[in-house]
Amino acid sequence: MAEDNDYLEKIKTQQKEWEENVLQKRVKRFNLKESPTKFYSPLSTIKNDFCEKIGFPGQYPYTAGNNPFDFWRAYAGDAAKMGYRPDWGGAGGVGKYGGFGTAEDYRDYLIRMHSMGRTGGPNMAFDLVTQCGYDSDSPFAEGEVGRVGVAIDTFRDFATIYEPYTGGLEIDKVPSNFTINAPAAVIIAMYAVLADKRGIPLKKLKGTPQNDILKEFIARGTYIFPPNQSLRLFRDTCVFCTQFLPELNINSMGGYHIREAGASRVQDLAFSMANAAAYLQAGIDGGLAVDLFAPKFTFNAFGGSMEIYQEIAFQRAARRIYARMLKERFHAKNPRSMLIRQPITAHIGCSSTTLQRPLNNLTRAVVGGMAAGMSGGMPGAFPPFDEPMGLGHSQEAVQLQLDATRILIYEAKVSDVNDPWAGSYFMESLTDEIEEQTMAEMEKVENMGGAVAAIENGYMQKAIAKSAYQKQRKIDKQEEFVIGVNCYTGQNEIHVKVNREVEASYDPALMKSAEKRQKEKLSRVKRERDNTTVRSLLSTLRQHAEDEAVNLMPDICKCVENDVSLQEICDVLRDVFGEFQQAKL
Amino acid sequence: MNQKRKIRVLVAKPGLDGHERGAHVVAYGLRDAGFEVIYTGLRQTTEQIVNAAIQEDVDVIGLSILSGAHVSLTRKVMDELKNQKAGDIMVIVGGIVPDEDIMELKEMGVREVFTAGTPISAISGFIESAIPAD
Amino acid sequence: MKNSWDKLIQGVRKKDIRAMARLITRVENREDGWKTAMTEIYPLTGKARVFGITGSPGAGKSTLTSEIAKELADRGHTVGIIAVDPSSPFSGGALLGDRLRMQQIFTVKEIYIRSMATRGMLGGLCQAARDVIRIMDAFGKDVILIETVGVGQDEIEIVKTADRVMVVCIPGMGDGIQAIKAGVMEIADLYVINKADKPGADEVEADIQAMLSLSSDVEGDVPPVLQTSALKKQGIQQLVSALLENPSDTQKQKVKEEIRIREEILSLMEREVFRQVRSVWENDGSLQDSVSQVMQKTSDPYTIVKQMLLNHKNR
Fold it and tell me: Do A584 and C98 touch (CB under 8 A)?
């Protein structure tokens, strides 16, 4: 240790000398108050114990990564030779995230995709009507049916989508993704009922429902019930999935959405972790041992800025915080419980892209891909450059996005080293800093009573709104620069235009007529079904909803099976649970 | 001793789209530009928006829509305003709006459309110049 | 100008909501002619009952106001709501967010909601609020609710323009009634413990009762303490009934009214005198001269004011 101390003393002396004689001289020469750049020395990471804070990839606390290498790395070479087009880095190949119109429209679209070789499970986007727990005939639905996703009113719609999924594409063979939150319980029930009707063992079902209601209150706004009651529904799905659908992921928590809503990096991480803690507690309150269900928790990607160093440090800090939280606070023993399982790690945000000179977004996406590749993920160059140009990506943009990811993997070889920044004085110090700030923010939330309390009292929402505003002000005041937006917009710049052929996958005529067709279908179902049974099922659901201790999933499954509509189920729950009221800004 | 007239703005989110970032930023920004901003929150029906605009006697309604349903939702608001004899209230729209839709929105009477990346000062400046000082 | 004022007042008489809304704007902006307009409005008023709702931030006042309004409308009343939020001292702008919590009553015909910013008018807000109340009253609103955050002196002053004031508190805000600011105690005619479905409501009630029994300020009617949950719509009917109950002590009411009228006259007078004096001083240059004198240290502000007042009287 004495030698260590001598060593550090030597560096200290040299740093002081450097600051005074080299750095300050230059700062003065350019007439600055302080240096515009930073340099980190071993003094920045004095506290770091490699084993305790970093560890080897795939070992606690997972700072260096979840695995020694990811599964895709094992097959990357073969994939290139075969021309295999996996969905690397977002909206691309198989199982493209999508959905529109009626269930029939979406089914036909999926069949067309299959014929183009894009097989794989559906990655479903639902229309806002479904996401908010309404049916297509609700007054709230007007103009929104089938717009941003597929409309689901009853189980029959759900079953229709799965018509092409038989044989080699049977639902026990391909995983499904459901981007659904507030009514996630209903969609999970539909999936279970579908398997049951097809005679497929539930325990073989794979896939991921988003099922992350807490971030809806603070980021996306498709909530229905108040936070506590929403968490009860989460508990019910968590217990149900753990018992009957053990292969299904339970949720996909979204830090990314929180950032896109305007949260700072630290808020994003702290709120995501606080939300995760609430879900973990909900599972435990449901009577489950943490290691029984925590391994089935997943995360939607974290990320959302162009600041490449910060985003890399963020991923490292996130893995460490989550692992420690699981181990120390929730006493997990299973290493899989401690992992942040996410499809990709860092990336830029859609809000990092600009409408001005949109091809620049490809450059931006590459930066995000670099950050991902250097922080334990696939270097996905997300999103396609035409993201801000209106809803829908062009084929050209998707092609370039996929190619950018491939170039990073195969040509730049970004993914050949695990955690390449490990041990960097700078990166370790930045990782510590993000961790410390996040822990402080989390403590604030925990002191309020946790995520639910911080949503009920509007703390998280206000903090995010304020942060979003601060960011905008910085751009407006040129404290932050966005190329082509608030700088380099002069006459000497060329406003590069792009060709863009938007994939005509969604027939506008179908979109337009979806509402009418969906309403007709729904009214037919309501005529044909056994309405006496429907009434009795809903009344049982109501009774059970009133008793906090009851798991509602069996009732919801029965409702779904008997063609009770999504809104009818949600309406009963609205009645019992109440509806979320937004907090004042 | 007349006070300088306060400009009142209603920031509204019609439809089910829950992305509030733009609405929040604009609400804060216009407040800091000296406007009185009324924010009514998510999931507003056309009737709610128009009633609020009339009761609050606002000079401007700013609609924030990111679901792609801007054309149909805006048309509903414009129709309801005319229906309630309040067609004189200025309407502006913010969101992800493709160029061809901007034309359509302006044809139905929307005074201006602000897409992503617009500085707040551009919005407040536009409102100040478009509202007659009386 | 006169014409358009008349038109708006006619509109208010004919229950035209846009006319009322516009008249409120112009009076609130203190546009030329506003006092004449209010003189014409005044005889049309006097029928409405005015209730003030105040309490600390986060007490759920807006939601409670919304529920009270709905209950009142259900009982056949027509309701006006004034929701006051602070203006930014820096920009003069304001973010008026109370409506957000009143979405459910946006389209109830009998209810009119108006958000109002404090506009940094020291004391002036009270008069503006009185004016808005009167315009609503003249329109025919028979109950008017005025909601403000009970933090600043201004806000406390505003609710004093009401016939009855309810102070809203919630359980779990630290030490029971700590949240209730000094100065609010004396004006409360009614205490409401909102969010009473949360633990600790009974403790807060006990605290308030204890405080009331100790207080020497409270004479006559002891303010009732009620528990509600605006979100769960519990206790609202009882609260509305209590609000509408006529106070038994009519003598006390009379005294209160006398004080209110006196205060209004004095405050209008204060502003008017100041406005007149100031405009004379500004226009004849004497204000600028005085400033120069003090700058040059040939006089001091105290002497200046004394002299200018003397000159003003002799004018």
Answer: yes
Q: Is A486 on the interface with B (CB under 8 A)?
A: yes
Amino acid identity for residue A74 in this structure: A
Name the E strands within B59-130.
Answer: 60-65, 90-95, 112-114
Angle of CA points C287, C290, C293, to nearest 5°: 155
Q: B17, A221: Cβ pair inside 8 Å?
A: yes
Decide if C145 contacts C129 (C-beta within 8 A). no
pLDDT digits (tens, 9 = 90+) for A318-370: 999 999 999 999 999 999 999 999 888 888 988 899 989 999 999 999 999 99
Q: Do A584 and C231 touch (CB under 8 A)?
A: no
pLDDT digits (tens, 9 = 90+) for A194-230: 999 999 999 999 999 999 999 999 999 999 999 999 9
Q: Are the beta carbons of B121 and A466 separated by less than 8 Å? A: no
Distance separating alpha carbons of residues C284 and C280, to the nearest angstrom: 6
* Strand partners for C105: none
A139–B76 C-beta distance less than 8 A: no
Shared domain for A371 and A399, answered yes or no, is: yes
Domain residue limits at A390? 55-88+263-286+299-498
pLDDT in tens, A406-465: 999 999 999 999 999 999 999 999 999 999 999 999 999 999 999 999 999 999 999 999
For chain C, list the domains and their CATH numbers: 1-43 (no CATH), 45-248 (3.40.50.300), 265-314 (no CATH)
> Rounded distance, CA A297 to CA A279, Å?
9
Looking at chain A, which residue has its C-alpha nearest residue B74? A143
Cα–Cα distance for residue pair C48/C137, rounded to 1 Å: 5
- The reply to whether B115 touches chain A by the CB within 8 Å rule is yes
Q: What are phi and psi for residue C293, nearest 5 degrees?
A: -60, -45
> C99–B54: do the CB atoms touch at under 8 Å?
no
What residues contact residue A66 under an 8 Å CB cut-off, 6+ apart? A57, A58, A319, A339, A340, A341, A376
* Contact yes or no for C223/C188 (Cβ under 8 A): yes
Find the residue in C nearest to A449 (Cα).
C172
**A543 within domain boundaries:** no
- What DSSP line would sit under B6-29, residue for residue? PPEEEEE-BSS----HHHHHHHHH
Q: Please tell me whether the peptide bond between B119 and the residue prior to it is cis, using omega within 30 degrees of 0.
A: no
Read off the tokens for A34. 């302080």
Separation in Å, CA of A579 to nearest CA in chain C? 9
Distance from the Cα of A546 to chain C's closest Cα (Å) equals 14
Is B36 close to C114, i.e. CB distance below 8 A?
no
Q: B73 to chain A: nearest residue by CA?
A: A143
Question: Domains (ranges, CATH) in chain B?
Answer: 8-130 (3.40.50.280)
> Across the interface, which of B42, B67, B119 has its CB nearest the CB of A147?
B67
In a domain, A474, yes or no: yes
CA distance readout (Å), A570 to A186, A546, B121? 9, 14, 43
C98 contact A CB<8A? yes
Q: Find tokens 């005198």 and name the residue.
A: C273
Supply the angle between the helices A227-244 and A265-285 in degrees, to the nearest 10: 60
Decide which of A498, A514, A548 is a domain's last residue.
Answer: A498
List beta partners, residue B94. Answer: B64, B114
Q: What is the DSSP string of C231-277?
A: TTTBSHHHHHHHHHSPPS-HHHHHHHHHHHHHHHHHHHHHHHHHHHH
Nearest to B72 among A143, A468, A475 (CB): A143
Q: Which chains touch B (3 or more CB pairs under 8 A)?
A: A, C
Residue in the block written with tokens 């305790």: A52
Residue recorded with tokens 């604009």: B26
C-alpha span between B117 and A325 (Å, rounded): 38
